[in-house]
Amino acid sequence: MKVLVVGNGGREHALAWKLLQSPQVEEVVCVPGNGGTASLERCGNLPLAIDDFEGMSRYALENGIGLVVVGPEVPLAMGITNHLHSQGLMVFGPVKAGAQIEASKAWAKAFMEEVGIPTAKAAVFTEATAAKSYVKSQGIPIVVKADGLAAGKGVMVATSLEQANGAIDAIFQGQFGSAGNFVVVEECLIGQEVSVLALTDGLTIRPLLPAQDHKRVGEGDIGENTGGMGAYAPAPIATPDLMTGIQTRVLEKAIAGLRNRGIDYRGVLYAGLMIAPDGDFKVLEFNCRFGDPETQVILPLLDTPLEELLLACVQQRLGEMPPIAWKQGVAATVVTASGGYPGKYEKGKVITGIKEAEAAGVTVFHAGTKLNQQQQIVTDGGRVLNITSTGENFEQAIAQAYRGIKSIQFEGIYYRKDIGHRVLK
Fold first, then answer.
1. Which reaction does it catalyse (predicted)?
2. Torsion of CA 190, 193, 196, 202, to 10 degrees
3. Which of 131, 172, 241, 324 is deepest in the core (most CB within 10 A)?
4. Alpha helices of 20-95 — where are they, by DSSP H?
5. Is 372 within 8 Å of 379 (Cβ atoms)?
6. Taking Cα atoms as reference points, which of 267, 203, 278, 212 lies closest to residue 245?
7. Are 297 and 232 contacting, i.e. CB atoms less than 8 angstroms apart?
8. Which run of H or E residues covers position 162?
């Protein structure tokens, strides 16, 4: 089978890498891909924009693509699945109506309240004065969110009125583009975040291993929000009892609620949850796709062939599949970023040491990279590489990831040196 993977990040490199481990997958084509996917055996890049749905469908039909796997949220929110379905192609990823669960935080909040999914108290605003008045009435700390897609950066946990008001102004003044048409103001929950990614065919929903991301750019979880600076799995805080509660109180309610709205949701449903000190939980947000960098620590531990699970979702037979099989051990990944990220950063910096790092026992998933005209790997984004390792325990896996990073160099390289600090304690 030939598979087309849409996207150019670390998540897509990890998806291609995992798919190619199956003898049933003869070739993977990534659109547009990155320097890492260009270097994989039996994998190639197709230089199309992720919103060129017509170009992708034409290529898929002409080249016998058996499955399209959509990585990023933007094409899903734009309706790529609907378009490819209209051309008779099999697609892993929800239709446009389902992608609203990530594309609009206001929509998702109303949905959660309607179906009884535990979530933080929130209010939605269309202009700044009312939002600021609400913040003042609720008190600090408080969370201010851009409504739409903002690449993981449209959230401010405000610890002062000035911060909250500044975030409201930034959103309405267009810092996050069309994501700033609405502002969601939400109570600030205390605890630890956990990411639960689940596969669904619209009828059955099965969680993957729980993971913990590190959203803040700075060590000690300070500074601006990013797309994620590192992750590990399985997250110990998500105990079997907790996962049972998440299955019944969140995942199954969500799929039933979507179905009741006439939405046939097939793909990943990703619940970002806050686990309170007393063990209770609430949903912070839903995403409509594989998480990044969570995918980079979940897939190395997956024992069931990935394409079997994805096809079962697309063909609505997930309930017939045996339980998902997992390898023993744990996984961790550390993100190396361009200097200045998540703000302004330069591109085109030559990267060295990737082969040396992999020789030291890590897997390097490329995120913001490309091949230049001299066939050198150069930086091409904010998050550049994911240095990923598995081990019997977190001490081993995390230490090996950091040993791998020592080999890698590019101008302005930045990474957090405390990934996994919660589990190492």
1. 5-phospho-beta-D-ribosylamine + glycine + ATP = N(1)-(5-phospho-beta-D-ribosyl)glycinamide + ADP + phosphate + H(+)
2. 50
3. 131
4. 53-62, 73-78, 80-86
5. no
6. 278
7. yes
8. helix 161-172
Rounded to whole angstroms, what are the CA distances from 38 to 10, 30, 371, 372? 13, 8, 8, 11
Burial environment of residue 319 by CB neighbours within 10 A (0 to 12, 13 to 18, 19 or more): exposed
How far apart (Å, rounded) are the C-alpha atoms in residues 328 and 303?
9
Are the CB atoms for 406 and 218 separated by under 8 Å? Answer: no
| Residues sharing a CB contact under 8 Å with residue 142, sequence separation 6 or more, in sequence order | 135, 158, 164, 185, 186, 187, 188
List CB contacts of 194: < 8 A, sequence separation 6 or more. Answer: 210, 211, 212, 235, 237, 238, 272, 273, 275
Mean pLDDT value across residues 19-24: 96
> Tokens 């997930």 belong to which residue?
318
Q: Average pLDDT over the chain, rounded to whole? A: 94
Q: Phi and psi for 171 in degrees, rounded to 5?
A: -65, -50
pLDDT digits (tens, 9 = 90+) for 231-288: 999 999 999 999 999 999 999 999 999 999 999 999 999 999 999 999 999 999 999 9
In order of 107, 145, 205, 233, the CA distances from 114 in angstroms are: 11, 20, 20, 31
Quickly tell me which residue has 């009892």 as its tokens: 241
| Contact status, residue 250 vs residue 117, Cβ threshold 8 Å | yes
pLDDT in tens, 32-79: 999 999 999 999 999 999 999 999 999 999 999 999 999 999 999 999
**CB contact at 8 A, 131 and 125:** yes
pLDDT digits (tens, 9 = 90+) for 314-363: 999 999 999 999 999 999 999 999 999 999 999 999 999 999 999 989 99
d(CA 38, CA 380): 14
Are the C-beta atoms of 47 and 72 separated by less than 8 Å? Answer: no
